Amino acid sequence: MTITESKLSFLPLVYKGKVRDIYAISDTEWLMVTTDRISAFDVVFNEGIPEKGRILNHISLLWFDKIDFIPNAINTKDILGRLPQLADKPGIAERSMIVRKLNRLPFECVVRGYLFGSVYEEYQKTGGVAGQKLPSGLSLASKLPTPLFSPATKEDTGHDINISLQEFEKRIGDQKLAHQIIDVSLQLYTMAYEKLLPHGILLADTKFEFALDEKNRLTLIDEVLTPDSSRYWDCTTYQEGTSPASYDKQFVRDYLTTIKWDKKPPAPSLPEEIIVKTYEKYKTIETIIEKVCHE
């Protein structure tokens, strides 16, 4: 089953993102539906990936259950009990979370254990990442001496913008809160990295989003440690200087690079073999994460 549009007429749509549709249940509650849409380079494709939304939603719920050192935004897991109307919408409940409406902090809180993606280019130009100096001589996909917090602004349109730690602290405006976000992000990354490694998976990087609740407490929101928000590499084929075999969206990005697309709308069509292979990668990492989270 592939669901690229949620189309719920009985609730007001308050936000449509690249992948998620958010509906208002009440003044304090939202329904967050993770569709099967896929985006790359901030462009949404016409084709969806079968079961992708269900897989992402399930993975987030597994990790939320495992993480006990920071609260999250989930109100209830009983989706059909709370919204029985969804029984007439096959596939939507499995792709949904009912969450508290909170004050989102407008940042992508990225933690990187390896030098890859946009920060590799930054390193080549500046010798560092997010204002943090790194050793010389690192190559693409090199393991970093220690995991790095590398923030970006959360943009509603266009690309998120990488910023330095100093700029992050300045924009947060509260040094204690900024340091708490950094510490929690690094703790989340390290926890997941250590749990995945014995299963043959390297968590190269991941991003978190946070909000403040009604009591001003830091709260984990959105998705967490999914193959849309993370790079999951295969330990057995990992090699510095290459784009490692992965169980995430990088597979689609790598394909798009081979066809020399200019990364501007409209998106090119995704071949069936790319769609199927992407589904298989997402399904594989879901199975591994299920084992990890049930240990």
Tag the structure with descriptive keywords.
globular; Phosphorylase Kinase, domain 1; alpha+beta; D-amino Acid Aminotransferase, Chain A, domain 1
Topology:
Elements lengths: L12 E4 L3 E5 L4 E6 L2 E4 L2 E6 L3 H15 L7 E3 L2 H4 L13 E5 L2 E2 L2 E8 L3 H9 L1 E2 L2 E2 L9 E11 L7 E2 L2 H8 L2 H22 L4 E12 L5 E4 L8 E5 L15 H9 L13 H22 L2
Antiparallel strand pairs: 1-2, 2-3, 3-7, 4-5, 6-7, 8-14, 9-12, 9-14, 10-11, 12-13, 14-15, 14-16
Helix pairs in contact: 1-7, 4-5
Question: Could you give a short description of this structure?
Answer:
The protein is α+β, with helices and mostly antiparallel strands. The chain contains seven helices and 16 strands.
Count of the domains: 2
Q: How many DSSP E strands?
A: 16
Number of continuous helical runs: 7
Segments where pLDDT lies below 50 for 5+ residues? none
What general form does the structure show?
A: globular
H/E series: EEEEEHEHEEEHEEEEHHEEEHH
Overall SS class: alpha+beta
Query: Under the CATH scheme, which architecture of the largest domain would be assigned?
Result: 2-Layer Sandwich
Mean pLDDT: 95
Q: Rg to the nearest angstrom?
A: 19 Å
Q: Supply the CATH superfamily name of the largest domain.
A: ATP-grasp fold, B domain
Quaternary class: single chain
Q: Report strand %.
A: 25-35%
Give the end-to-end Cα distance, rounded to a whole number of Å: 30 Å
